[in-house]
Amino acid sequence: MVSRHVTVVVVVVEGRLQFIAGACHVWAAFGVWQREEFEAEFVSFDELLRQSDFLLVTCALNKKTQGIFDEAAFAKMKNTAVIFNTSQGDKRKEKFCFCIIWCDQQEALVKALKTNQIRAAGLDVMTPELLTPDHKLTTLPNCTLIPHIGSAETSTREDMATLTAANIIAGLERKPLPGRLC
């Protein structure tokens, strides 16, 4: 049992854990090297779901993470839990998908929010990437949607600007673009 009042649980790649370690008790379900300096405790995914107050999901979409947050997963969570998703997406079947709710599992999140199975959700990535104004997620008062800004790090934005400039120059010179646009 955790002795602190708030438990932050993280499903991440190693690099992002250091930003919050030390602020709260941190648990990791998978994808994180267990390292003493992070004071992270490895737990099963089911334990992570049962004990989480705040669940920060930043892992990339792959075979292991695809669709992990389905109706059964939300049913295991505390009704006071808040889930945040800034996961990396993947292009599949012409739809942009991400690991929290892979395309057809988004309804599970909507149901969990509508029935107060979980308290709230904050989504940086959703399916489809651009929701229509009447989409179910846009109508829920306990769901906050923000534009995909998970890449808003200085080095990433500098790389994006450099690639954009290279694309413009190549386009003006009628050469192949170094970075595909779509």
Automatic annotation (TrEMBL):
<dbReference type="InterPro" id="IPR006140">
    <property type="entry name" value="D-isomer_DH_NAD-bd"/>
</dbReference>
<dbReference type="GO" id="GO:0008465">
    <property type="term" value="F:hydroxypyruvate reductase (NADH) activity"/>
</dbReference>
<protein>
    <recommendedName>
        <fullName>D-isomer specific 2-hydroxyacid dehydrogenase NAD-binding domain-containing protein</fullName>
    </recommendedName>
</protein>
<dbReference type="InterPro" id="IPR050223">
    <property type="entry name" value="D-isomer_2-hydroxyacid_DH"/>
</dbReference>
<dbReference type="GO" id="GO:0051287">
    <property type="term" value="F:NAD binding"/>
</dbReference>
<feature type="domain" description="D-isomer specific 2-hydroxyacid dehydrogenase NAD-binding">
    <location>
        <begin position="36"/>
        <end position="150"/>
    </location>
</feature>
<dbReference type="Pfam" id="PF02826">
    <property type="entry name" value="2-Hacid_dh_C"/>
</dbReference>
<dbReference type="InterPro" id="IPR036291">
    <property type="entry name" value="NAD(P)-bd_dom_sf"/>
</dbReference>
<keyword id="KW-0560">Oxidoreductase</keyword>
<dbReference type="GO" id="GO:0030267">
    <property type="term" value="F:glyoxylate reductase (NADPH) activity"/>
</dbReference>
<dbReference type="GO" id="GO:0005829">
    <property type="term" value="C:cytosol"/>
</dbReference>
